Amino acid sequence: MSRRAIVTVATLKGGSGKSTLASCLAVHWRLNGRDPVLVDADPQRTLARLAERPQALGGVPVIEDSSADVVTTARRLGKAHSPVVIDTAGFRAPATLAALAEAGLVVVPVKASPLDVDVMIDTARTLFSTVDGGVPRFRCVMMQTTRDSVIARHIRSELTEAGFPLLESELVNRIIYGEAALFGATPSMIEPRGAAAREIAALADEIEALLAPAKETR
Ligand SMILES: Nc1ncnc2c1ncn2[C@@H]1O[C@H](COP(=O)(O)OP(=O)(O)O)[C@@H](O)[C@H]1O
Ligand SMILES: [Mg+2]
Predict the structure, then answer these.
(1) Nearest Cα residue to atom 19 of ligand 1
(2) pLDDT < 70 positions in the chain
(3) Do 86 and 66 meet the contact criterion of CB atoms below 8 Å apart?
(4) pLDDT of amino acid 152
(5) Rounded to an integer, what is the distance from CA 44 to the centroid of its chain?
(6) Which domains does the chain have, with CATH numbers?
(7) Quick one: which H or E segment has residue 46?
(8) CA distances for 93 relative to 15, 41, 60, 159, 190, angstroms
(9) What atom in ligand 1 is closest to the CA of residue 172?
(10) Is the peptide bond before 165 cis (omega within 30 degrees of 0)?
(11) Which residues line ligand 1 (CB under 6 A)?
């Protein structure tokens, strides 16, 4: 399988929205006729636990592997599924480094909090600099934003100045994420025409465009 079909969600900043992002993307793709798989490389098992709840992430399979062999697992799964979305732990782990090195695209959730962005930039630089094969191709995604807020605008410019590329779409702060998670669902499942589902769809489209073989842009 081409490594392009592997999307790794990573940041060492805890509570940024990694698991939310990974699950929302995978479920969106499944609802849109793709056959994604989630790899839970976080020993805290957030995705595995979601999959045990009644709505079971809409049937997206969740495979747990938080070992350094996660890449072997991802490649194997990639023979039957696409995309392969890997959720990583919030700490430096061999599994995280391996998943970063293997990814066609790394997606870095950035919480729209002025207290988080500096830490995120510092830790991402350190983490990415130790990845085999060099800094992976990555894009940041703003999470839990308030539309048109001064904070989000400021963080966007801080990231750009730090040389961190950002996707246009952002996942606005909405209650529905938590409500959906209670049942092992995502907003796309419980309110497919709602604002959150539309934001997830726009984000997923941006990511898919970056994964497409024709686009060689870094
Ligand atoms: N756009 C959003 N709106 C509201 N809550 C969100 C949003 N994105 C993430 N969250 C919440 O933030 C918390 C942390 O998210 P999570 O995905 O578990 O982060 P991580 O995996 O990075 O630790 C969760 O309670 C999740 O529901
Ligand atoms: Mg998580």
Answers:
(1) 17
(2) 1-4, 214-218
(3) no
(4) 87
(5) 16
(6) 3-210 (3.40.50.300)
(7) helix 46-51
(8) 17, 9, 25, 24, 34
(9) 1
(10) no
(11) 14-20, 46, 90, 143-144, 171-174, 177-178, 181
